[in-house]
Design goal:
Strand order of the largest sheet: 1-10-9-7-8
Strand content: 5-15%
Number of strands: 10
Bound molecules: 5-phosphoarabinonic acid
Radius of gyration: 23 Å
Order of helices and strands: EHHHEHEHEHEHEHHHEHEHEHEHHH
Length: 447
């Protein structure tokens, strides 16, 4: 089994009756998704993506990745939100959270830019690029998002100064809308190779399109295996039988808990390699479900690290949360704990034991402690950190998110709330067309 749901640590929070009672709502949400007539049904391209992807573009992604690997030391991926989180999550999860520092790796270092407005973050990266050969991938579906657009200006200048306009064009890859938008037009005019964010796939559901696949392939990850994982997950979670469909069961559990007042879900993983996967997951669920005054607030922790910070609150603070624990069964790494003749730390009882065994034991102890502390825990047991498992898990979460959003009664595929800060920022920065709002906000500042 690549992925299975363990409900043993839910404690008494959920009865079979609870699951039975909500199951018809979950089936209705699943049917709505499959009928493709619910809210946001223009954005369901991700459902078929594992099988029905553009094979010609897929081959182009692999070819471009090879050229990038051969021609640069540093590959900069410029994008924000759904336009970078999936790629970064995959690279860290499958390769390493310190991918750039893997000794003797044959693939370029990969950095992510345009995901903040921080001058020092951008300046630091520019310094790292000094004296290095650089390629960039600008990723923006709309082509107009401020953060990546600014970073793109900066890196385009760098490349044009270093390689000239002609040389730079072979080092700039853009992933954007198929036909419309300023980035598409600009890229075509300048002769950049372009890749497509399909019209019917929203940013946070786009990791298995060129958005994620190009950087992932540059990192030397087998994207065929990743797609195969997603394909198999699609098949595994197609049935409408909650007893035999862990995806539906996960949806049912989180919605029952939400209705019991558990308004925070913590995704907990015991591998630092899963940190960006958690960030990707938070965006997926947060942007999809948090609207109309509803939604489970997604948060995340890496244990045992965060047992020494948030652990106290989770064990003993306000009882508003449940945990979804990602248990990676096979860590692919062995590290026996050394024997110390002086036994200063009194840890010789662990000598010779594998660190991964200790990590799993810490997980087990924490599962007991937190569920005894009235934090229901649901465990997702994932076979390993392979690209196949990553693709499988991504599809599991995307499907669960969509069905859960419909069960909750929201449109999981829009993000109207994201616009509010942008309008205010543009007004305060003096953008044309925002004069009235600027006046109103400035009045509020000086009040
Ligand atoms: O999920 C989403 O739709 C968003 O997070 C977008 O990916 C993000 O805002 C970036 O948008 P764009 O790709 O248009 O620059």
């Amino acid at each position: 089994m690549t992925l299975s749901l363990n409900t043993k640590f839910l404690g008494n929070s959920i009865t079979n009756e609870d699951l039975k009672n909500i199951s018809n709502e979950v089936y209705a949400a699943q049917a709505k998704l499959n009928a493709r007539n619910g809210e946001g049904s223009d954005f369901l391209g991700w459902i078929d993506l594992p099988e029905n992807y553009d094979k010609e573009e897929f081959a182009r992604i692999k070819a471009a990745a090879k050229r990038i690997q051969d021609s640069c030391d540093i590959f900069v991926v410029i994008g924000i939100g759904g336009s970078y989180l999936g790629a970064r999550a995959a690279i860290e999860f499958v390769k390493s959270p310190v991918y750039n520092n893997i000794p003797n790796k044959k693939t370029p270092d990969i950095y992510f830019a345009g995901n903040s407005i921080s001058a020092s973050a951008l300046n630091d990266l520019l310094k790292i690029c000094e004296g290095k050969d650089v390629c960039i991938n600008v990723v923006s579906k709309s082509g107009t998002t401020t953060e990546p657009a600014v970073a793109f200006r900066v890196f385009r200048n760098l490349l044009e100064e270093k390689y000239g306009k002609e040389g730079a064009k072979d080092r700039i890859f853009s992933t954007t809308d198929r036909a419309k938008g300023t980035l598409k037009k600009f890229s075509d005019e300048n002769g950049y190779e372009t890749f497509v964010v399909p019209d019917d796939v929203g940013g946070r559901f786009s990791v298995l399109t060129a958005v994620g696949l190009l950087p992932i392939a540059v990192a030397g990850i087998d994207i065929d295996a990743m797609m195969k994982g997603a394909q198999d997950a699609r098949k595994a979670y197609a049935n409408a039988d909650i007893e035999n469909n862990d995806c539906l069961k996960y949806v049912a559990i989180r919605n029952v808990l939400y209705r019991q007042g558990k308004s925070v879900e913590i995704l907990a993983a015991y591998e630092p390699a899963a940190q960006m996967l958690c960030e990707w997951w938070k965006q997926l669920f947060g942007e999809s479900e948090g609207k109309d005054g509803k939604g489970i607030f997604p948060s995340s922790v890496i244990f045992s690290t965060d047992l020494h910070s948030l652990g106290q609150f989770i064990q003993d603070g306000t009882r508003i949360m449940f945990e979804t624990v990602l248990d990676i069964k096979n860590a692919n790494d062995e590290l026996p704990i050394p024997y110390d003749p002086a036994n200063v730390d009194k840890l010789n009882f662990l000598a010779g034991k594998d660190l991964d065994y200790v990590n799993h034991t810490a997980m087990l102890g924490t599962l007991f402690a937190h569920s005894d502390g009235n934090v229901p825990n649901v465990v997702l047991e994932l076979e390993n950190r392979s690209e196949y498992s990553f693709g499988y898990l991504v599809y599991f979460f995307e499907l669960a998110c969509a069905i859960s959003g419909y069960t909750l009664g929201v449109n999981p595929f829009n993000q109207p709330g994201v616009e509010s800060y942008k309008k205010n920022m543009f007004a305060l920065l003096g953008k044309e067309g925002y004069e009235d709002l600027a006046q109103e906000l400035n009045k509020r500042i000086t009040k």
